[in-house]
Amino acid sequence: MRGPLNITLLLLCLFLCQALFLHAQDTTPARPYWQQEVHYHISTTLNDQDHSLKGSESIEYINHSPDTLGFLWFHCWPNAYKDKTTALYRQLSQLDDRMVKLDKIKENGYIDQLDFTIDGRKALTRSHPLYSDILRVELPAPLPPGGRITISTPFFVRIPSYFSRLGHDKDSYMITQWYPKPAVYDRKGWHEMPYLDQGEFYSEFGSFDVRITLPSSYVVAATGTLDTREELAEYKAIGRQNRTGKAPLLSYHARTPGAMKTLDFHGENIHDFAWFADKAFFINYDTLRLPSGKVIDVFSYYRPQGNRQWMHSTAFMKDAVLHYSKWIGEYAYPVVSAVEGPGNASSGGMEYPMITLITSPKAGRQELDGVIAHEVGHNWFYGMLGNNEREHPWMDEGINTFYEFRYEAEKYRGNSMMGSFIDPKYRDKSAEEYQAAIYRSLKVVTINEPVETPAAAFPSEFDYGMVVYVKAAEWMFLLEKALGKENFEKGMQAYFSDWKFQHPYPEDLRESLERSTGLSLEKDFDLLNKAGTF
User: Fold this and answer.
1) 399-529: what CATH class?
2) Which CATH architecture is the domain 41-201 placed in?
3) How sure is the predictor about 517, in pLDDT bands with cuts at 50, 70 and 90?
4) Is this structure's pTM higher than 0.70?
């Protein structure tokens, strides 16, 4: 028996050594972080008679991945507005609290006349098997790691009536999610996704040069810097005068009425481009000096018959930028803008890089300040920190809501979202006590889903709002209590510094917090998967 036993022991030892070796191989650090890079050149012309855009785009796409690509998924999101078979229409018809939007659909929209070329060679395209607003573009030759290609196509967009994000309200235009855009390819694979009303976006970082031609009577507010000097100088002159509050407000007047004009915009380190055009916009303008000494432009665009509290909008924006810069990290862009949009039944606003649309026509001063702070705050959580909002919506909405609640508590001892649930006596307490009262009030609200739930999986707008915004903000508050305020702020600033202009996932947030504070957060992050109240 001894001989066979020795052989068995020897074989067992060899097996264990091999297993340990393989385990060591498995636990070596993952491949270095990478992300794709895109640089857009877009030209478009607005026809305000038939509510359409005709344009072309050229995209330099750089493959920083370790993989050779044979195709690219493209988002063609205007097709979400095409007919009742799209994912957008199906979602609206299935969510009771969003069905009202279906009644606002007077005109459908779409994108067509696409003709893709890659480095001048015609590229074949295939429809997505499920979604009409996603297209597969086949590359004429494989794109290796480190390779770059130029993708070009014309396009035509029929602008729908305004009921979601892209749309027009008579001759007022909200031009968002409007151009063909490559889907994100990251370390977890492709992220092609249909346009949804409940559920936001995920896009690649890069630069944008956008040329917009339209009738000269329109004021245009857009992502990025306006590089058309005469137009910019006029906006600033009108905006300075209007900011003083002296009546009557100055309006924009076209230098050549009836003609067309072309405006050039540029943006760096951004992952989307939106613009808004209206003949009646009033403009306010100011500047803001950040603690580093950097000076940024602050613009607001609002409506003659709109909310009168917009007279204070540039002050609200400046205050929000200063607070977020202090708490998280300095605002990185050269301009911040806000636009007063038409009233929207299910949204206080919608964010885009450097610009936000606010749709709160009846908001009082404090409420408008809170909404603007929230939407400006998305320049951090969605803008500079570009997470996958469709899969992990709490990483932008929830974290941002936590900071909005802090902003309102410190400034007003108020809360534009949950204030009616708070005992008025807490107005005389500290900001920290007021915030604690907000989160205690949630104990009487039924909250079912875990924070870590994809946006499209929520059964209603109410559930989505209470979990993605408020329950996630409560999780941040509990995390702050667990870490202590000083450690928490150090951790969030480390997270911002580590992942600015990149694509963080929940595990990346945890790693930044643990590394910067030296504390284990396993139990805290486990709460993200807890159903019900905390």
Assistant:
1) mainly alpha
2) Sandwich (2.60)
3) very high
4) yes
